[in-house]
Amino acid sequence: MLSNILQLLSLYRRFFTTGLLVIFSLVFLFFFTESASFSPVLQRFIVSLVFLLIIPLVYSRMVMKEPLSNIGFRKGHFLTGLSLGILSVVCAFGVFWWLVLFFPSFKEAYILPGLVQTSFLWFIFYELVLMAIMVMLYEIFFRGLIQIFWLKDLHMWGILLQVIFFLIFSINDISWQRAPLLLFCPFAGMIAYFSKSLWYSSVASWTFLFLVDIFFLISH
């Protein structure tokens, strides 16, 4: 019995170790509390950088000895990524428009930072730097590490599971402010799955979030 278990663990070592890493990371991020003696925003940024970016890349490249292409850093299928990316942005924006029309509280609750609303330069910095970093962190961890690297053998079920993991990750912050990220999560998963690359899902995610911010900036 024990030998069978050990044989099974050896056979699926990659699957189990990656799963443990994902669960540990999500549990840590879920229960992480900021120290009052240091900037909460900076603390959250550093922790996110470590767990959503550095650990997945180090684990893939140095622990598992696999190329970063196995986590989604590859050219993939250009035409598939481009066409599906455009279609996803259009469809997601249609759903977003419906939510705005039928849930007025969405428009009231989604608020951009004050400087972003009043300064064009701050808006550019926010979208091209801060938003781009956030998108890349989520793409690497949820679409890269979880869907492409860990759950690739589950095929399209991996898309659903990465959405569930993202919901679990976001459960402490379920609000209209986070709705666009949650809305585009399954679309990003489909783009990454069919294009075999994180680049197209990252660009599509950023484009959708950028359009959402533009909409709210104008409407407010």
Write the layout of secondary structure elements.
Elements: H1 2-11, H2 13-31, H3 40-63, H4 78-102, H5 104-109, H6 114-118, H7 120-150, H8 157-170, H9 179-195, H10 198-219
Describe this structure in words.
By secondary structure, the protein is an all-alpha fold. The chain has one domain (2-219). Helix content is 79%, strand content 0%. It has 10 helices and no strands. The chain has helices spanning 2-11, 13-31, 40-63, 78-102, 104-109, 114-118, 120-150, 157-170, 179-195, 198-219. Helix 7 (120-150) runs antiparallel to helix 10. The radius of gyration is 19 Å and the shape is globular. The model has no long low-confidence stretch (mean pLDDT 91).
Short account of what is shown:
The protein has helices spanning 2-11, 13-31, 40-63, 78-102, 104-109, 114-118, 120-150, 157-170, 179-195, 198-219.
- Helical percent range? over 70%
Amino- and carboxy-terminal Cα gap = 65 Å
- Number of structural domains: 1
Main beta-sheet strand count, sense and barrel state: none
> How many helical elements?
10
Low-pLDDT stretches are none
Helix/strand order: HHHHHHHHHH
Radius of gyration: 19 Å
- Structural class call reads mainly alpha
Global shape:
globular
* Share in β-strands: under 5%
Got a strand count?
0
Mean pLDDT: 91
Task: Kindly report the oligomeric state of this protein.
Answer: single chain
